[in-house]
Amino acid sequence: MVTTELSHSHYSSIMAKPTLKNKSSSPWFSDGFLFLGGALSALLLVWGFSTLTIPIPNENPTLKSQQNNAVSYSTPDLLFDPPDQTFYDDPEMGYNMDDNVRNWDEKRDEWLKLHPSFSDKERVLMLTGSQPSPCKNPIGDHMLLRFFKNKVDYCRIHGYDIFYNNALLHPKMFAYWAKYPVVKAAMMAHPEAEWIWWVDSDALFTDMEFKLPLQRYKNHNLVVHGWPHLIHEKRSWTGLNAGVFLIRNCQWSLDLMDAWAGMGPQSPEYEKWGKTLRSIFKDKFFPESDDQTGLAYLIAIEKEKWADRIYLEGEYYFEGYWEEIVGTFENISRKYNEIEKGVRRLRRRHAEKVSEGYGVVREEFLKEAGYGKGSWRKPFVTHFTGCQPCSGKYNEMYTAEACWNGMRSALNFADNQVMRRYGFVHPDLEDNGVSSLPFDYPKPKPKPKQ
């Protein structure tokens, strides 16, 4: 078994506080993304493209008209499960990647008819996870806990379910391939979920109010952060990032994952796929077949079969590169505080359960903020590709301090949006300490003299 770390150890160094010792990385989830983050970072730095470069097709609703629409979930009946036969009673139905699932849309529809309280079409299940064993980095488990807390906070605020997996569900699907058995099993275990939202362990939410504009994706089954011209014209393996994706719970998605995972290490054609992908995507500098390039292949080469149902999101930070984001937090905080100083309703203390409504109100004052690079809007998701918080190894493009300080600032920036509902904030993003907030914070602007 060839792991990402063994194949590319010369591209990385130690990441953590300067006192940490050199540790080896575990081939699991985001820490398997060592070289992916590095190459993506390099391309971003060279080309300097932003998330605003790809226009949204005219037939799709605009982002501004769709975001922050509060969703009223029906209350599910958790005690009701009728005795009628469903796919769960079929001994041939399995949760493994090797199990062939057919007619999933019909089976799911039958289950939902028997469980009408789960009929909400915008129900989302978030998935994330980490390796089965403790992190090699002495602070790695603490960092993963903070990243997970961030996701739990976001899901609690917006009423989403979340599942954290730390088991290897397929012994041969390691590193970045490990998430796909989890996604498939989650589809089977949660037929009530319309969308499965995978978020890598080293990605976090830095705008706790922003909601996925699901109506924007009503005609699509997979959403990833990407740039069509880099895939179709440049044939670049960094034309998308597979560390965060939204996939519909449907037969099309199962079929896509079968084709996608067919390029993985459990396949007898794994080595062949590595050569094929590298021959098409010339900037791919490592020989192994990886999921990111595999998806780019399906979009570029098998586009008639898959591309129409895949949305390459480039207008906002569906998944944003951390190095271009972390330096903006202080300015963003000042901008938001200035808005709140003039709007009493946004300063008002309120219960966390009604936070979505305040996000809708705030949106009226963010119309000029923009999205993505150069915007002063809070970035939706900040992804620390290449920093490897669990293994302690980071891409040589960065320093230990840059990764460590960036993660701490981003986590505290996000945490401030949560802790404020509890009466506290981190005054200094570089310090994990908190202070209590005074009433009517931030202090309103003085009224002009008559």
What does the model show?
The protein is built from 15 helices and 13 strands. It is of the alpha/beta class. It has one domain. It has a six-stranded mixed β-sheet, with helices on both faces. Strand 2, helix 5 and strand 3 form a beta-alpha-beta unit. The longest helix is centred in the last third of the chain and has 20 residues. The relative contact order is 0.18.
Strand residue percentage: 5-15%
Categorize the overall geometry: globular
Number of strands: 13
The total of helices stands at: 15
Strand order across the largest sheet: 3-2-4-7-6-8
Radius of gyration: 22 Å
Q: Main β-sheet: number of strands, strand sense, barrel status?
A: 6 strands, mixed
Q: Order of helices and strands, N to C?
A: HEHHHEHEHEEEHEHHHHEEHHHEEHEE
Ends: how far apart? 77 Å
Global mean pLDDT: 86
Low-confidence stretches: 1-62, 65-73
Number of domains: 1
Query: What structural category characterises the helix and strand content?
Result: alpha/beta
Helix content estimate: 25-40%
Question: Keywords for this structure?
Answer:
six-stranded mixed beta sheet; 15 helices; 13 strands; alpha/beta; 450 residues
